[in-house]
Amino acid sequence: MITPDSAMPEIERQKMPVDIACVGFGPATGGFLHTLQQGLMYPDGTPVAESKVMPGMPPQVICYERADDLGFGVSGVVTEGRAIRESIPDLDLAEIPLAAEVTSEKVAYLLDPIGASRRSGLLKVADTLIKPFTKKHAFTLPWIPPFLRKEPGMVFSIGQFCQWVGQRVTADGTIQVWPGTPVREALIDDDQVKGVRLIDQGVDAKGQPAAGFMPGMDIEAALTVVGDGPFGAVGRQLDEHFGMPEGHHSRDWAVGMKFVIDLPESCELEPGTVLHTMGYPEPEIFGFFYVFPDRVASCGIFVPSWFETPTRTAYRYLQHWLMHPWIWQHVEGGSLRSWGAKSIAESGRKGEPHLVGDGYARIGEGSGGTNVLRNSGVDEAWATGSQLGEAVLELLKAGKPFTRENLDATYVRRRRESWLEQESLKAENARNGFQKGFVRGIIGTALAGMTGGRLHLGGEIKKPSEHVPTLEDYYRGRVSAEEIAEIRKACEAKGAGLHDALMDKVGWPEIPLDGKLLVSQQDALLIGGKVQAPPGYADHVTFHDTTICETCEERICIEACSGQAITMNPEGGTPLFEREKCVHCGACLWNCSHTDPANPERGNVNFQASTGGFHSAEN
User: Fold this and answer.
1) CA–CA distance, 156 with 250 (Å, rounded to integer)
2) Sheet containing strand 273-278, strands side by side
3) CA–CA dist 139, 134 (Å, integer)
4) Cis check: omega of the bond before 230, within 30 degrees of 0
5) What is the DSSP string of 407-449?
6) What is the b/e burial string over 164-183, where b = at least 16 CB atoms within 10 angstroms of the residue's CB?
7) What is the tens place of the pLDDT at every residue in 81-97?
8) What is the largest CA-CA distance in the chain?
9) From CA 601, how far away is CA 597, in angstroms rounded?
10) Alpha carbon distances (Å) from 511 to 110, 417, 515
11) What does the pLDDT look like over 445-497, one tens digit per residue?
12) H or E stretch covering 185
C-alpha cells in the first residue's frame, strides 16, 4: 500500500474489510447514506446485493466522522432545500430542533456608523447618496433578485439537522456511523483507492508513539466515499496525488463565524426571518441573521479570501457587525448561547476536483458543489450525496465494480444532467469581479445572476500570496511604518496578534464586553464553543517550511485563527499551536500569505485530521 502522507515507519496495523467506507459526516454524506439506506433492502427484507466481505449479509457500510459527535462544529444555514425535500418528501421541520420555514427575507446595505472602515472614494460617494434613504444606518433593498431569494425555503442548524439525519440512517442497523474517528489518509495502490487509514492514538505532539500507543486501523473498502468537507485531509491528499482538472483550483475561500443567540423578549422577529447584509464592518464582509423557533437566532459574518488585509480577525469584526444599530436593535439584551466558525470553499465549479476514480468518489463541498452565485452549499452538498447513492445502488444491483468508468457512467452522469450542473455553470464566473474590488464584484455578481451567467466581470482568481499586501501598504496613510513596527514589537513581547492594536489605532472602538452577549474570544471558546480536545493525538496544524515562518511579517495564520490556537512565539520563529483551543475551522490553511516551496498551489500551513474542536451541535 502507498500512503503518501505517512511520516512514521511502516508498522503492523489491524485491518478491517468493509464494502463501503465514508469519510466525514455532513450534509453530503447524509444525503448519500439516506439514499443508500432507502434502497439497500428490497421490501421483503432481502438485500439488493450481497456483501463481498460478509457473505449472506447486505453490503457493509461504515462512516467515519472526525468530530466527537455528529453535527459538532458546523453552522446555521438558509436553503431552498430542493434536494432535501426531494429525498424526504414528508419532511417535517418541527421534528428538527432549531429549524423553520422561511417566512420573510431582507437584504440590507450597512453604512459605517463610526467611520473606521476602509472604504473607496466611489463607495463613500455612494454612501452619501444613499444616506437620506437609510434607517439606523442601513438601506434595505426594495427588491431581492430571484437568484438570491431563498423563499420558499428553510432555516436550520446544520448540526441539529445532521444529528437528525444520523438517527434516521442508522435506525435499522444496515449503516454504521462512528464519530470521534478521524481518517488520516486514503490507502492508494497504483492509483486505486483501496480504503482509508485511521489516525494513530497514544502519540506525542509530533506524532511519535507514547504511552498507550495504538496504530490507526486500515479500513479496506471496495468504495471510499470522500465527503470530508472543503479542507479535509483525505480530499486534499487525493487532489495532490491525482492533481486537479486543467484550469481548476481551490483559491476562493471564506471563513464563516457566528453567534447563536437567545434573543431578548423585546425582539419581534418571527421564526423563519432571514436578513442578509453587506457593507459593514468592512465593505468586503457579508452578514447573515437567521431566526429559529423559540426566539433563537444564528447571526454571523463571512470574511472572504479576496478581502485584501493581513489582519483577518473574524471574531472582532463579528462583534462590531453585531453592534451595528440595524442589527443591535434585535439582539440588545440577548445572551450568547453558542458560537462557531468554519471555512467555506467558494471556488464553486472552478474548485471541482476529479469526482471519481478507481475505488473512490467525491461528494459535497470538497467536490466543488457550492453555488457561489446563490450563496448556497448545503442543499447542493446533499444533492451530490443523493446522486452518488443512486449510482451506487445501480452498480450494486448490476454487480458491477466501483471503477472510474462505472462511477463516471452512473454518478458523474447524474450530476452532469441535473440542475446542480446547470446552476453551477451559471455561477462559475459570478464572483470573479471581487478580485478587483467590492463594487466591481457586486456589479459582476448582479450581471451573472440576471443573465444566467452569460455576462460577468472578469478577474483572475489569485492565491493569498499574490494579493495580500504588507501591513505597511494596507495601512498606508492611516498608520505609519514606524508605528506598525512599534505595535509589532509590543505584540510579539506579549505573544499576541496585531489585529486588536491596529484596529484600535485606526478608530475601531473597544468592544464593551458584558459577559453575556459580548464576551472575549477566549471566553467564547468555553461559553459558546465548548471547545476541547482529548489527549494522545498529534498536533494537526504544522508548517511545511519553518524557515518561511521565521521571516514572515504578516503572520495571517495568527490573525485569522478563530480559536486563538495559533499564537505569536515570544522567542520568534515558528508560531506556537495549542491543539486544545483549535476549533477546526481551517482558516489558517488557506489564509497563509506564503506558498509551500514544494507545491505553489498551497500555503505553508499543513492541516491534518484530528479530534477535538467544538462540542455543540448548535454551531
Assistant:
1) 27
2) 138-140, 104-110, 273-278, 286-292, 296-304, 253-262, 335-345
3) 5
4) no
5) HIIIIIHHHHTSHHHHHHHHHTTTTGGGGG-HHHHHHHHHHHH
6) bbbebbbeeebbebebebbb
7) 999 999 999 999 999 99
8) 78
9) 9
10) 19, 50, 11
11) 999 999 999 999 987 888 877 888 999 999 999 999 999 999 999 988 888 88
12) strand 183-189
Question: Of 382, 378, 400, 379, whose CA–CA distance to 391 is shortest?
Answer: 400
Which amino acid is it at 531? V
pTM over 0.90: yes
Residues 225 and 535: their CA atoms lie apart, in Å, by 28
Query: CB atoms < 10 A from the CB of 545, how many?
Result: 14
Read off φ and ψ for residue 361, nearest 5 degrees.
-145, 145
How distant is the alpha carbon of residue 474 from its chain centre? 27
Q: Could you tell me the three cell numbers for 590?
A: 488557506
Buried b (16+ CB within 10 A) or exposed e, 190-225: eeebbbbbbbbbebeeebeebeeeebbbbbbbbbbb
Question: In this structure, what C-alpha cell is assigned to residue 57?
Answer: 449479509
Q: Are 23 and 364 within 8 A, CB to CB? A: no
- Residues contacting residue 547 through CB under 8 Å, at least 6 positions apart: none
Domains present along the chain, CATH in parentheses: 15-77+160-248+350-426 (3.50.50.60), 99-152+250-345 (3.30.9.90), 429-461 (no CATH), 466-607 (3.30.70.20)
The residue type of 422 is Q
What is the percent of the chain with per-residue pLDDT over 90, rounded to a whole number? 84
Q: Please, are residues 153 and 146 in contact by the beta-carbon 8 Å criterion? A: no
Residue 608 burial (C-beta neighbours within 10 Å; 0-12, 13-18, 19+): buried
Residue 358: pLDDT band with limits 50, 70, 90: very high
Q: How far apart are CA 554 and CA 205, in angstroms?
A: 26
Spatial contact of 182 and 609, defined as CB atoms under 8 Å apart: yes
* Span between the terminal Cα atoms of the chain, in Å: 38
Pairing between strand 61-64 and 175-178? parallel
Q: Which of 301, 290, 295 is nearest to 262 (CA)?
A: 295
